[in-house]
Every structure is written in C-alpha cells, then in structure tokens.
Specification:
The chain has one helix and four strands. By secondary structure, the protein is an alpha+beta fold. About 35% of the residues lie in helices and about 25% in strands.
Length: about 90
C-alpha cells in the first residue's frame, strides 16, 4: 500500500492519501494451484523416501534422498527440493 500526507496551506487541512492494491482472485487461484502441486510432490517424495528408508535396512542420509519425476518416470537426487525435517 502506498500512502502520503498532503497539507493544504489555504485551508490548513491535512489529507491522508492512499492507494490500496487489491488482490486479484485469479492470481490467488494460480498461486494456490502451484503451491498445491509443489506440496503434493514433496509429500509423495517424503512418503516414498520413508518407504525406501524402512525397507533398505539402513538409514538414508539426507544427501541420498530421492525425488520422483512423474513425466519421465525417473528418480533424481532431491537436494533442497524436499520437505526438510525440523531436526535438521
């Protein structure tokens, strides 16, 4: 929000001028859609890595966590594109 004060010297009045940038509903829907896709991907990867961790026989290091790419049906290192545990 942008705002300013204006003083009229002829009548000794102060005016507060402001401009509100209203939210665009279509932008909110677009943002929600993209956020949903990202968190759905992170959730799937978290569950997949938890499954692999339980069945592997030894704990997975955070550098070994995987990310599933559904378009190419491949696994890649997750890096920072994942949920990060609070204890990390």
């Amino acid at each position: 929000m942008e705002s300013s004060y204006d003083f009229d010297i002829f009548n000794d009045k102060v005016s507060y001028i402001y401009d509100i940038d209203s939210l665009n509903l279509s932008k909110i829907y677009e943002y929600s859609y993209l956020l949903g896709r990202i968190y759905a991907t992170y959730t799937f990867d978290f569950i997949m890595n938890d499954y692999v961790n339980k069945h592997l026989g030894y704990p997975i290091k955070k550098e070994e966590l995987l990310r599933y790419i559904p378009i190419s049906r491949t696994l890649i290192p997750a890096g920072e594109n994942r949920f990060i545990s609070l204890d990390e």
